[in-house]
Write a structure and sequence with these properties.
Elements (H helix, E strand, L loop, with lengths): L4 H14 L4 E6 L6 H9 L7 H5 L16 E8 L12 E4 L9 H19 L5 E4 L7 H7 L4 E2 L5 E2 L7 E8 L19 H5 L5 E3 L2 E2 L5 H7 L6 H7 L2 E3 L3 H4 L24 E2 L8 H8 L8 H14 L7 H8 L4 H12 L6 H11 L3 H15 L5
Parallel strand pairs: 3-10
Antiparallel strand pairs: 1-2, 2-7, 3-11, 4-7, 5-6, 8-9
Bound molecules: iron/sulfur cluster (2 copies).
One iron/sulfur cluster binds next to helix 7 and helix 9.
Length: 382
């Protein structure tokens, strides 16, 4: 005998807890209320090079594009906050909290969703079920709000009064009716503007609207090109991602700590020593980072970012590493290293740049070298 929507929903809520998710909410599979806002955001170009969003813009209009015949969505959260490691010292870079562990969270959550799906199918064999995390065309925050899990804050993240925003969102779609939660209809940001005020690159166009092309997370993870010159100083010491608008949010002060072993930061990976990264070739970089979230921007993106961070904290001890970067086979790394050397007003740096300029085959990198030399000239080092 098949389960009623109430019985299946009760089973799902129990399964969510047993599988270690921190909260669960269930909503109907409908057109998300924020779809027009999302399309306007794309039209404004705020998605930058995240072309996968534009390519699937129509699909976001209804979750049936993720699962044919879908009737219900189970939204799940999994907290990733862990004890903070030490603050980065000279020559070190910061990594966004969600990437502190050694595993890619997609793999960890997918494994749990697979078990979840098996349990649902055991209870309801006729169901069609699909679990997703991040990669499907689904406005997860909208559905999480509809499922009663929180509100979308001025920093555009889903916020919950107990858990703050330091959690991953995952979803399970089913072609079965379920017992739905009430949507979360209140906004608890109030008069606070801490996230908007603290953003180092002024990425918020207005409250609730993020221009991703100015956001450090986008610049250090998604962008394949050189980081725009005017935003390089704002990167500060962020090697991968940025947590500033979450760290200043009062709702994150009491966010619970995760006990998941894979999310705990291993020694040496955060903060991460940057100069030695320039010794890694493709093979050694792959060996070290293949399973970590830092693999996404690949060696070229991480070394570009490392050069920018070293440029933001000039030190004699970084010059040798940046010199290696200036001779790297990747022009992206050479250009960023040229800029970073231009921030180092030390004897001999101008000579290093001039020698490279003579053999540099790429016009854009020669331009970076020229601008770096001009920068040095303003400090008397030329
Ligand atoms: Fe700004 Fe950092 Fe938040 Fe991006 S992640 S909006 S750069 S504070
Ligand atoms: Fe809302 Fe303030 Fe948190 Fe920003 S920092 S999301 S305004 S509560």
């Amino acid at each position: 005998m098949s389960l009623s929507p109430q019985q299946l929903s009760a089973q799902i809520r129990t399964d969510a807890v047993e599988l270690g998710f921190n909260s669960v909410g269930i909503c109907p599979a409908v057109t998300p209320t924020g779809i027009d806002h999302f399309h306007q955001w794309l039209d404004a170009g705020y998605g930058g090079q995240m072309h996968y969003l534009e390519a699937r813009r129509a699909a976001y209009a209804h979750p049936r594009h993720v699962l044919d015949g879908v009737q219900s969505i189970v939204m799940l959260t999994l907290g990733y906050r862990t004890e903070a490691p030490e603050e980065p010292g000279p020559g070190a870079g910061r990594i966004s909290k969600y990437a502190w562990g050694e595993v890619d969270y997609h793999d960890l959550i997918h494994a749990r969703l697979k078990q979840f799906k098996q349990r649902i199918l055991a209870a309801c064999p006729e169901a069609s079920v699909r679990g997703v995390v991040d990669t499907a065309p689904l406005l997860e925050r909208e559905f999480a709000q509809l499922a009663g899990l929180g509100w979308i804050g001025k920093n555009t993240l889903l916020l919950n009064r107990q858990a703050g925003s330091l959690f991953f969102l995952a979803a399970i779609l089913l072609d079965q009716p379920l017992d739905y939660d009430d949507p979360h209809t209140t906004d608890h940001c109030g008069t606070c503007t801490a996230c908007l005020d603290a953003c180092p690159t002024d990425a918020f166009v207005e409250p609730y609207v993020l221009d991703a092309t100015r956001c450090i997370s986008y610049l250090t993870i998604e962008l394949r090109d050189p980081i725009p010159r005017e935003l390089r100083a704002g990167i500060g010491d962020w090697l991968f991602g940025c947590d500033v608008c979450q760290d200043v949010c009062p709702w994150n002060r009491k966010a619970p700590l995760s006990e998941i072993a894979e999310f705990q930061p291993p020694a040496g990976n955060n903060p991460i020593e940057l100069r030695s990264l320039f010794d890694l070739d493709d093979e050694t970089f792959r060996t070290r980072f293949r399973k970590s979230p830092l693999w996404r921007p690949r060696r070229r993106g991480i070394l570009r970012n490392a050069a920018i961070v070293l440029g933001n904290q000039p030190a004699e001890a970084s010059i040798a590493a940046l010199r290696k970067g200036l001779d790297d086979a990747e022009e992206l790394i050479r250009g960023a290293s040229a800029w970073a050397l231009g921030q180092h007003a030390s004897p001999g740096v101008a000579e290093i740049l001039k020698r490279r300029r003579e053999i540099e085959p790429v016009a854009d990198v020669r331009e970076e070298i020229k601008l770096a030399l001009e920068e040095l000239a303003t400090t008397g080092q030329h």
